[in-house]
């Protein structure tokens, strides 16, 4: 009896050898090749998971650094106020600001309460504003408390917010405008970069690029430092005094 089974004129072993040669010649994958690809794919998956975790960790560290930098910047600006609408005034010294606060706002501000006064030109408009640095936070609060007396005067006083806060406030002010167009009776207060509407709080969500109610901003959307800061600062849901 022959040791190999003939299939037609070709033995089974020779037929398999021919098939193997054909597979090699055409570059088709063999079981060994597939096993090796599976191992390589598994290694790539592990590497991808590691890289994703590293990127997420770097993002968190970056957000933390951004948060700390913004806190430091705003801390350095907390005693600053911007006086707008004083374009026709040639005087920009502490004495002028002191007199303005006393006569217009009825707030006693002495020369000792003012550290510096800077003139800031607004582009090429020919207009400017004055950035005033006060020596005490209490003076800043008293001045802001009496800014309602400037209504209709053409003069404006505002806090010296950081660029990031100003950008968020811009979106929130637009949202406030849209709400008031629908219902002018709504009680709306913008405090820093949180908008209070009838007891609800709204922030500018950078990830979703829109204004969102804070109660609806889930934890997994709190990736940007601004959103986490807003949540940390929000406190109670009651409406605060305007500032």
UniProtKB/TrEMBL annotation:
Source species, domain of life: Eukaryota
Amino acid composition bias (Polar residues), ranges on this chain: 234-243
Region named Disordered: 220-243
Keywords assigned by UniProt, alphabetized: Coiled coil
Coiled coil regions, renumbered to chain: 34-75
Record's protein name: Uncharacterized protein
Source species of the chain: Rhodnius prolixus (Triatomid bug)
């Amino acid at each position: 009896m022959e040791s190999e089974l003939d299939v037609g004129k070709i033995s089974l072993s020779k037929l398999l050898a021919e098939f193997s040669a054909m597979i090699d010649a055409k570059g088709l994958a063999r079981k060994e090749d597939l096993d090796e690809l599976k191992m390589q794919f598994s290694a790539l998956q592990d590497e991808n998971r590691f890289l994703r975790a590293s990127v997420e960790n770097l993002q968190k560290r970056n957000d933390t650094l951004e948060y700390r930098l913004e806190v430091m910047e705003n801390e350095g600006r907390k005693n600053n106020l911007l006086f707008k609408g004083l374009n026709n005034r040639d005087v920009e010294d502490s004495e002028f600001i002191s007199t303005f606060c006393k006569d217009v706002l009825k707030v006693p501000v002495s020369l000792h309460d003012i550290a510096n006064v800077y003139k800031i030109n607004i582009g090429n408009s020919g207009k400017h504003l004055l950035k005033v640095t006060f020596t005490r936070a209490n003076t800043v609060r008293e001045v802001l408390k009496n800014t309602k007396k400037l209504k209709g005067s053409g003069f404006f006083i505002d806090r010296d917010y950081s660029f990031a806060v100003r950008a968020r406030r811009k979106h929130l002010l637009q949202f406030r405008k849209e709400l008031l167009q629908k219902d002018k009776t709504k009680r709306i207060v913008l405090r820093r970069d949180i908008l209070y509407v009838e007891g609800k709080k709204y922030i500018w969500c950078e990830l979703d690029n829109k204004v969102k109610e804070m109660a609806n901003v889930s934890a997994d959307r709190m990736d940007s430092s601004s959103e986490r800061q807003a949540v940390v600062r929000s406190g109670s849901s009651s409406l605060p005094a305007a500032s």
